Structure formats: structure tokens, C-alpha cells
Amino acid sequence: MAVKDENSDQTLELFLKIGLDERTARNTIANNKVTANLTVVIQEAALNNGCDRIIGNLLYTVATKYPANALVHRPNLLEYVVSSKVKTPGQLEAAFTFLSNLASENFKRNEFEEACGIGVEVSVEEITQTVNEIFEENKAVILEQRYRTNVGELLGSVRKKHPWADPKIAKKLVDAKMYELLGERTAADDEKPSKKKEKKEKPAKVENKAVDGTHLQPSEEELNPFSIFPAPEDNIKVHTEVFFSNGFVLRCCNTREMLDKHLKMTGGRVFSRFPPEPNGYLHIGHAKAMFVDFGLAKERGGCCYLRYDDTNPEAEKKEYIHHIEEIVQWMGWKPFKITYTSDYFQDLYELAVELIRRGHAYVDHQTPEEIKEYREKKMNSPWRDRPIAESLKLFDDMKRGLIEEGKATLRMKQDMRSDNFNMYDLIAYRIKFTPHPHAGDKWCIYPSYDYSHCIVDSLENITHSLCTLEFETRRASYYWLLHVLDLYQPYVWEYSRLNVTNTVMSKRKLNYLVTNKYVDGWDDPRLMTLAGLRRRGVTSTAINAFVRGIGITRSDCSMIRLDRLEYHVREELNKTAPRVLVVLHPLKVVITNLESSSVMELDAKKWPDAQADDTSAFYKVPFSNVVYIERSDFRIKDSKDYYGLAPGKSVLLRYAFPIKCTDVILGDDNETVIEIRAEYDPSKKSKPKGVLHWVAEPYPGADPLKVEVRLFEKLFNSENPTELDNWFVDLNLDSKLVIPAAYAVPALRNAAVGDTFQFERLGYFTADKDSTAEKLVFNRTVTLKDTYCKGGK
């Protein structure tokens, strides 16, 4: 341990010598891969004695971002960095692009220098002139937005004209110009615009964008999130570097012959896969995975497999398999082919035998506890170096069921002293005397995910193996296995998993909630399962829009607010859900100046912009002398800021008439309002400010249509319940409220399961599968209030 501390101190001293601040240096040391890369870069640059901070920061960037397929040219780049010919981040990024495209081909200095702006000097005068021109073009917007102006966009315009200009000088000149034009920053510049003002100015803002053209165009990545992925024919570059404890570095990549064979099989098309494990219902995180996997294939004119990762027969059920296939289709994706990892069990077995023959696997007899202990101590298993012939026989015994469950495993012979724990001789096969849902009882040994996943990717000629960031440390094992078996190697890329506030998405936690009946099944509308969201009334198109808006990034620390999803739901339902009138908590209003036998048929709008000559945009609502309003829309004591009904006050019943409260009937406690008496204005001459929704008796003495309404809130009180020790105690006990007897207009009587409506002033609601001929049941999909768009997209 002392040796390790001494090495750490020496490494820290080295990193400080090149100008890294102490915090960055210590954080770097905590990352073994970056530490190894940076140490090698410093040695290649011959800067063990240190350098100035500018060069040191560039070296750090080289260590973390240099393209792995062009390592042969790294000394050339470092020569330019040390001599300060490459001296800005912009030049370094240009160098990375040039070298990545060059790969291992011959390095031509003249082409490199031209691509990176070597020797190009941009004077302060030239930058000043460009800044002046940009400010003149954008003057009107800058004066309007003042210090809220996006300075990044202005600097981007400068970079576009002078890519090799010193960014610090450009920033200094832009700041000076802002001060010259606007003067001192005021308190008003730091105030957030009021919500009311934002609402009014929103259309004008959009118009300015279109007319003035002062905002930069969206990046290619924003327009097409799949542009970040390489073409299949480029998959000859180094995928990753696997660092071994003995100092050997394995640089994994396809040979030209291997890639050509693959391209011939695929026709050069993109082949991706969506590989869920059929051990539970899919959640919204899987929606992102589907968008990435199916979306890439669709955008490139390729194919995407739906592959069931069914290597654990104890946890898998036919129910989950059927659900996954059905929900993939509901999400709008069409698989090229549906396959199972179990389809390849024979291939996987034969390759495991070959792995043993090549000396890269062995049969082990350690217990799970012993394996854990030996891994923690970085110790080899006592059976690691047993003869190959012995392992081959024992593996055959395992296959034939001659060894008890738990008495033997097949382990890959990787590197027990590696800095990557996913290289600690991972298990390839284990014994399970359990019938398989798809393969039946043919096998009693089953491959692990770590062994099977990469091999099946290769066998299916997958071009892009895309997964979430928690699998990044498995990349070394993925490529090591394909390398030692001489198999084609797909391009692997990890993206951030989708984390949404106030919920859990771990299948284990979801299963706990379902089995312990904290929720009403896998499709409970409060869950973020796709079945639950669908039952709640969320559409697949809204989910896909939400996922696309998040993008495909590697930032794994962000928690996406639930109201961001709700924003996309509202955006769609506002266009697709017809309006109807429903009263959740009815309060009876008797209109005294209307005959009790009189029932009028009035027109109500299904859509806010309904045209008078379009009869399909209206529905009929009865208006009689007994109507019902929301109990919350009446107060005994009126106030200036209250627009509901009160004694002596008038309101407008939407699509009907103004009414004025003339009397209030109280209960025996002399507090509870039992009934309101009112008069209506048939001439509609009065113009009250308040507008209420309502439902009337369809004919004298008949109650309106009764429906059950379920209101849902966030399932957990905390934004991130998984951080808590006892996460399930954070459950929101008020996350579901059932209103058994709401009143609805007759037009809602024929609603079918899955139909969605906007209950005016209340929110969007969907007919639930619990509906019967006797009573309709509606789930609230989302409220009308939108906190996300007010806060900014």
C-alpha cells in the first residue's frame, strides 16, 4: 500500500508540474485510464520536468480526447504542441479531426498544418473589425435583450470567420463592446422576466427569430442526433485500449479482411439491436434505448433486431416476452427480425470450447463468496492454471449435467490484477437445472451476459452496439473476448441512461412495488413503465418527442424533471384531445327563472378554434334549470381577485349563459353549502369576468352521467428516491385519489378505452381499462398547468 501512495505522490507532482491545478490533478489520479494516458503523453512530449499551464492544458486534452485510431501520429501532434505551433483549443480540435480521418495512413505535414491553421496569425485589429460587424448586424436584438444576450452565439460568429483567432482576445473584445453599447449592468438585467410578460412576448420572440435571423442555426447534432455515429465502413479504427497489469496494451480493431467480410454480409448497411432482458415490463428508459437503436437504423436506412437477452431462465417469463414485442410496436418501431440469445446457445457453446482450447478460459470450483473474496484481493483462482484438457472435460461434464449446480463455472482467463474489475476473470457459464422459456430443457448450462452479449452482436453482424454508460467498464471485456476469438468487432458507444425525477426505474425496485402491492400492477398509471404511461394516456409519439429532445449524450449525472415529459404530453394532447365538460366535485345550482321542464340543446366546442360552419367541431350539451358546478368555484365571501361564483355575483357558464347567485342553502351545521339558487340572463347582456365549466341534468329529475375519475400525483415525494437508504418509505401516500361520482356531459357516454379528452379547466384524461357499461373510469394524464415551458425548455 505504501508503494501505491508513493507512486500517487510522484504522479501528482508530475501533473502539477505541467500546470494542472491541484483539484484537477487529484481527480485525474482517481481515474486510472486518464492517469495512464496523461503520463504517457507527458513522456512522449519529453516534459517530465514540467511546462507552462497553456501547454499543460493542451496535453491534458490530448490525453483525454486523442483519437485512438491514430496513435501512431500522436508524437507528431505533441511536437506541434510543445513548440506552441498548436496553441489554442480550436487548433487542437481541428488536429483531432484531421488525425482521426487520417488513421494510420502517412502523415503529411503540409496538409496537417493547413487543416489546423499552423502559422496563421489573426491580428487584434482583424478580430476587432469582425466583432464590430457582428454587433452592428445584431444591434437591435442586443439592445432589446441587453445582458441577457447569448454571448456564446456572438463568439461563435467570431469563430466562424476566424477559427484560429485567440478565443481569450475575442471574449475580451466582445465584453468590451457589450459595455460600450449597453453601459453598466443594472439590477433589471439580472431579473428574470415575469411569467406574464414571457407569455405575452413569446409569439414576438419566435417572429424575431424568423425575421431577423440573428440566432445561429441549430447544430447538425440537434437536427439529427444520429450524426455522431460513424459509418459501417469506418469500423476499422481502434475501438478501445485495454490496459493490462503487466503493461501490455491491447488496441482492439477489425482487420481489413474481417471488415470487408462483414460489409459483404450487411451490404454496408447499419445493423443495430434492441436487446431487453425479458424479466419485467419495459420502462421509459427503454424508450430512450429504442429511440437510439431503432432510430439510428431507420435514419441510416438499416436494420434493427429485437433480441431477447434470455440467458437467465429463472427470471424470464413468456408474459414479459409478449409484452416487450407488443410495446415495441406501440412505440412505433418495427424490428427487422426478432431473435433470442438462446437461438445461439449451440454457437456460444462451441465458441466457449474454442476459448478453452486457446487457453483463455478454465473451469473453476470457487463458491460465489470465494470468487468475491479473491476478486477483492486481486488473487487468481487456485484452478486458473489447470490443464486445458482438464477444463475441456469438466466443461463437457457440466453440459451433460454430471456436475451439481453451484459446483463449477466456466471463467474467462482475463487479468485479475487489472484496474478494471470487469476484467477479473468474468464467469462465462454457470450450471442451472431450470427449463428455459424459449429453448426448453435442452440445456443445463447457461451463458452469462458478459460472455454472450458481445459474441451474439458479432454473429448478427451488428455495426453499432449502443448501450448506457454503466456498461462502459465492460467495454474492455467485450473487445478482449472478440479479439481472442478472432471475431468481427462492432462499434461500441455508451450514452447516458434516462433518469426521471420522483420515480424509480430499476426493474428490481419496480418488481418490489408490484409484488408488494404498493401499486396496482406493472401498468399502474403512476409508474414510469411504458404500459403504465400508456394506461395513463401518454402517447408513444409524446414519449419519443421527449426522448429526442433530451438527445444522445454521455452526460450521466443529470436528472430529467418529470414536468419536461409532461410538457411534450400537453403539446400533443392540446392538438388531439377534444374538449368536454366534466365536474369532479359537483355543487347543485337551481336556476329559478327557467322552467323545470325546459331543456335546451346548446353547442359546445370540441376545439378552441372550431369554425362555426364545421358541425363536426361541436357537440351538444343539455342546459336545464339544474346545473352542477365545481364546489371550489363557489365562495360565501367574495374578493377582488376571485372570479368564481359568490352571493350577488355573476359568472358565465361556458357555451351557455351568465348566471347570478341569488340565494345559498346551507346544511344543518350552518356552514356546508348544500345548494345555490341563481337566475340566468337569457339575453347575455351581462359580461361577467369569471367563466365556469358545468354539467346540467339532461332532463328533469335525472342525474347527469356519473363517471369515476382517478387523479394521480408523483409516486415519490423526493426527486431522487433511490438515493435514500429506505427508498420505499418515500412513497407518496396521496399519489392516487379516486373520485367515484363525478358528473359528465352525455357526449362522453360512448368513450372507448384509450380515448383521451381535455376536461375543460381540469386537465387531460383517458378512459381506463376498468371502465364498464355501467360506469366509465377516467385517468388524469396530465394537468393543464405547465411548469416546464414557463421555466424554459
Automatic annotation (TrEMBL):
Glutamyl/glutaminyl-tRNA synthetase class Ib catalytic domain location:
270-574
Which GO terms fall under biological process for this protein? glutaminyl-tRNA aminoacylation; post-embryonic development; reproductive structure development
Q: Is Magnesium set as a keyword in this record? A: no
Q: Where is the Glutamyl/glutaminyl-tRNA synthetase class Ib anti-codon binding domain?
A: 577-681
**Span of the secretion signal?**
none
**The tRNA synthetases class I (E and Q) anti-codon binding domain covers which part of the protein?**
691-768
What are the UniProt keywords, alphabetically?
Aminoacyl-tRNA synthetase, ATP-binding, Ligase, Nucleotide-binding, Protein biosynthesis
Q: PROSITE patterns under this entry?
A: AA_TRNA_LIGASE_I
The UniProt GO MF terms for this protein read: ATP binding; glutamine-tRNA ligase activity
Keyword Protein biosynthesis carried by entry: yes
User: Which EC number(s) does the record attach to this protein?
Assistant: 6.1.1.18
Record field: catalytic activity: tRNA(Gln) + L-glutamine + ATP = L-glutaminyl-tRNA(Gln) + AMP + diphosphate
List, alphabetically, the GO terms of the cellular component aspect.
Answer: cytosol
| NCBIfam families named among the record's database cross-references | glnS (TIGR00440)
The family classification in the record reads: Belongs to the class-I aminoacyl-tRNA synthetase family.
* PANTHER family (alphabetical): GLUTAMINE--TRNA LIGASE, GLUTAMINE-TRNA LIGASE
* Descriptive protein name: glutamine--tRNA ligase
Q: What is the lineage of its organism?
A: Eukaryota, Viridiplantae, Streptophyta, Embryophyta, Tracheophyta
Q: Which gene encodes it?
A: LOC111317799
